[in-house]
Amino acid sequence: MTIYPKKQNRGFNLVETLVASVILSSAVLTVAAISTRALTATNLNRQYEIAASLIDKQLSLIDYIGIDEFIEAGQTEGVFDEFEPAYYWQISTEYQYIDSLYLVTMTVTWMEHNRPYTITVDTMLDGVSMYADVGSQ
Fold it and tell me: pLDDT digits over 23-51, tens only?
């Protein structure tokens, strides 16, 4: 008669199962947190791109009509409300007394989750020469 050794049915005990579950769930939570942060950063980047595009659009319009006419019109702030959230813009100009140049500073501000975001751009625009006005009079 041959006696065979008794096979032990070895499975996972409760402690091993719990440790594996904790490791797996922490890995899933880490991947989910990274994904959430990436999506939030992508959304914020899109908003900065929209703000930069609006600044470019507004400064191109000012350059097209002329900085002198823009200053005479007197509108130095406004709202781009075709986007959500609304973007508020403000422009300040400063005459540089050199070749009829103006320092133009444009700031665009918006709110996202009760937190303000701002982007500011400085540029120089050429106005009508003061000497041309004196010569025509």
Answer: 999 999 999 999 999 998 899 999 999 99
Distance from C-alpha of 113 to C-alpha of 127, rounded to nearest angstrom:
40
Phi, psi of 5 (to 5 degrees): -65, 140
Please tell me the distance from the alpha carbon of residue 1 to that of residue 119, in angstroms, as a whole number: 90
| The model's pTM | 0.70
Residue 68 one-letter amino acid: D
Residue type at position 9:
N
Domains of the chain by residue range: 14-136
Structure tokens at 57: 């659009």
Selected residue with higher pLDDT from 93 and 131 = 93
Q: Which residue has the tokens 């959304």?
A: 43
